[in-house]
Amino acid sequence: MNITSGTPVQKGVALSDINLKEYMAKLIEQKFNGYMCITVKGRGGIEEGALIFHNGNIVSSDYEYYRYNKKFMAEDGLARTINAVIAKIGVVDTFSLSSYQVQLIMTLNEDCNLKNEIMSIDSLQFPKAFDYSFEDALGDERKPAKDYEKDVLLKKYGLSRMIGPKVTRAVLLESADEENKNIEKIDGKKAKK
User: Fold this and answer.
1) For 101, phi and psi rounded to 5 degrees?
2) Is 86 left (phi over 0), alpha (psi -120 to 50) or beta?
3) CA angle, corner 58, sides to 56 and 61, nearest 5?
4) Which three-class secondary structure state does DSSP give residue 123?
5) Which residues contact 178 (CB under 8 A, 6 or more apart)?
């Protein structure tokens, strides 16, 4: 989903530290404009759901399985995102936006818009526990995507500075050869091999 960056309300809150159902009810009650991203660990890796709020109503949603490069939008995304609310391992991020920014998101992501806005937390059915059957239902589509690499995920979450050069035996040998050449130049002698 194409989402405008917003003003952080909460970032990196562990799902074990928050009652997300109550928190969502509070956002609806406060007529919140913005979005919530729920990132969880499924069987196959990282999954992420997004809920877009406009004047307190949930108006749009999507859900992505990064390992499989598979995305579900609108009602299918909402069902999976509501499932993620119950997950044990994950984090939630919430960002506020202006009403205009939310409308722009809805325009740019029409395929993610819900047919009927969610105006009350009571109209959602939350599972008792995280349901892995959504991931299991992918069946043959559960082949890892080619771009499911640590580097890609780190870039997606703005952590690319953590990506360092890959240290392999060949890289170490090449580095040692370069150091030897520099030593030879300083000493003016050739090293014995």
Assistant:
1) -65, -40
2) alpha
3) 150
4) helix
5) none
Q: Are 97 and 35 in contact (CB under 8 A)?
A: yes
Q: Answer whether 127's CB lies under 8 Å from 79's CB.
A: no
Residue 21, judged by CB atoms within 10 A of its CB (0-12, 13-18, 19+), counts as middle
Q: Which residue has the tokens 């074990």?
A: 16
The residue behind tokens 């108006």 is 59
Half-sphere exposure of 28 (CA within 13 A, CB side): 18
How far apart (Å, rounded) are the C-alpha atoms in residues 60 and 54?
Answer: 9
Ordered per-residue pLDDT tens for the chain, 193 residues: 888 788 999 998 999 899 989 999 999 999 999 999 999 988 888 899 999 999 999 999 999 998 888 899 999 999 999 999 988 888 999 999 999 999 999 999 999 999 999 999 888 888 888 888 888 788 766 666 555 555 555 555 555 444 455 556 666 667 667 767 766 555 555 544 4
User: Per-domain residue ranges for the chain?
Assistant: 7-145, 149-187
Is residue 87 a contact partner of residue 49, using CB atoms and an 8 Å limit?
A: no
